[in-house]
Amino acid sequence: MSLSECLRAFIPFLLQCSCLPPSLCIICLLTLLLSLSLSLSAVCTEAVLQVRSRLPLNTPQHTHLCLRPTTMAVRDAASPLLLGLLCLLHTWGARATVEVNMEDKVEAVLGDTARITCMFKSQDFGGSGGMTIKWYYVKNSKEIKQIYSQDSLQSTVEKNTPYSERITVDTTGTVGEVVLTIRDVQLSDDEVAFNCYVKIIGEGTGEGTTKLKVFKTPEDPTIQGVEQGISVSDEMAKIASCEVENGYPKPKITWYRDKMPLHNIPDVVKVDHRVTSKSSGLYSVNSDLNMKVEKKDKDAVFYCEVTFLVPGAEKMLETNSINITVFYPPTTVNLWVESPKGKIKEGDTVEFLCASDGNSESQFFMIDNNEGPRLKMENVTRHNSRVYVCVVEDFENSVKLLTNTSVFVNYLDEVVIEPTGSVLVDWKNEFLATCNALSSLRTKTTWFKNGKEVEKGHHLSLKAVTYDTAGTYDCVVTVPEIQGMQANASLQVTVQGPPEIIEKHLSEAETNERELELTCHVRSYPTPNITWGTTNGKIISSSNHMTNVGAKSVAKVQVNITSNTNVFCNASNKFGKDSVTYVIKFTKHTTTPATTTTTISPTTITAANTTNNTSTSINAAKPKSKAKAETPKPQEKAQKGSYGVVIPVIIICILLLAILGSVLYFLYKKGKICNRSGKKDFTKEKSSKDKIVVEMKSDNTEEAILLGVNGEKQLPNDQ
């Protein structure tokens, strides 16, 4: 090696020593000097040899130019020194190697951002001076390309690569750590290795690799069951299909029946998977489940489960559950009464239902020679009580089964009452009746009158009947065991006897009319003959009409204001008679400052007057008897004369009436008028009107006794 070649080889090395530590620079200089000395020695030796070759042999010059041992010693001494320097340099380089640490893999979701960290260290490295960082991507172990470089002066993102627009490299603030950021991760980035190369001048180089994994969560899976039914006699048939779309990496489908996974079993279960890779790079998986179904599968639920990978985990999605229709032959059959529930009675609508434990399209039902699994019978009677048979046939599986059930229709015959219809019962006599109805169940009998219960049991007993006893009696027979099962019949009881006048109690009414309307109610059967008259033999016309209990008669009586009027109501039939007498009194009372009280007989009510008006008071035999009042109108008469004459006359009359009232009151207190011994006084203050008093007496006695004003008894003729 010539000197010029040696210098040319070490000049670049000397330029690089300016960036090295001092100790390393010294070693470099020593190495350079040694190399120069060796090179110079080699050059000199070569020149001597060339000169010697031109001289004749065995001459002094030739001998003088022979190599000296010192020269060989120098060369021999330089060799161990050079070897030692090389060992020293080798040892120094091994100690100064750069260490790079990176993750084996980084996971990211499609479209997200991935961050790959490169960490490096060296013992003597203290900064970024003299450091070079390069990033490469390695795909399929063949395609290797640099995408980024950085030194102490600048950083560069390589153009025309798949990552030119999507990467950045940043420091984290920690010495010896850089991060490669990849935006908008694509499926093409999956399984790509990213290599971080670090070179530190004077320290050495190091590199590391991280592989990028990309994931995409699939869409929700769907399941679709077959619409038609599947027979247990069929070979393996398709049950359902399951599909999941747009996942990465490829999703996995697992079938379940009643939460138990299904796997391929020859001639029993077969699962077919089909994987489709779309132009986007995503995967879709479709799976079909085929099975040989059994009867127990009629209640089974089927669904599929999809498992897929996500960064750092494995996730799962399930479809909704489905059922399938399974056809299988019957083994048992049942027949029952669907309605009514409980016991059946005549008139009900009975519905039969026949069912088997099979499920087949070829099943055929017949109930009591009527096709179909249902039979409806309306308005059943006791003649429908018998055994009913249901037959079921499965023609496809050659199966025939039958069963039966017994039906009993309960009945309740019509109610029979003895005596029947309408009966006549003599007044004050006893009456007996019976009621019964034939039934298939125990019965309960109750008698009612006007909606009220009067007797329990089959027998009706009426003692000492009166007109109150007459009426309609309903006999109701019920069956307690069946709600709504009952029958009833009616009996009309009519009581025949003498007439009975209802209004024999006293009542009071006031009227200003000169005509009174008197009413007489008579209970009787047969219908009584009702007549009205007075004690002087005058017959009073009346209007009569029938009532539920007898008859009603209304008479209009002209009131005599000058004397008492006696009016009687007579009622008679073939069994007897009854009468009532109305005594009408017209009395004028003069009003005094003090209250005037009139004592009446026990059968007469007289009202007290406190004014000078004239009115009519009636003691009638009917509480609701009509009494029309008519009040005189003296003001109208006064208007015809002169007011100057009338006013003094009125004042004088008032004074006279006051004096007369005071005298009468004094005599009354002394007992000179109105017998007060042993009698009860009835007093009542009334408005100052003239009163008509009606006294009612029963004519059951031969003679009616009227009490006069002085309390003495008088005969009717004396009135």
Brief description of this entry?
By secondary structure, this protein is an alpha+beta fold. The chain contains 6 helices and 51 strands.
Keywords:
single chain, 719 residues, alpha+beta, eight-stranded mixed beta sheet, six-stranded mixed beta sheet, 6 helices, 51 strands, 16% helix, 43% strand, disordered C terminus
Shape: elongated
User: How many alpha or pi helices?
Assistant: 6
Strand content: 35-45%
Q: Averaged pLDDT, please?
A: 77
The largest pleated sheet is described as: 8 strands, mixed
Structural class comes to alpha+beta
- DSSP summary, beta strand count: 51
As an assembly, this protein is single chain
- Evaluate the radius of gyration: 70 Å
Q: What percent of the residues sit in helical stretches (DSSP H or I)?
A: 10-25%
Low-confidence stretches: 6-25, 57-95, 590-642, 676-719
* C-alpha end-to-end distance: 192 Å
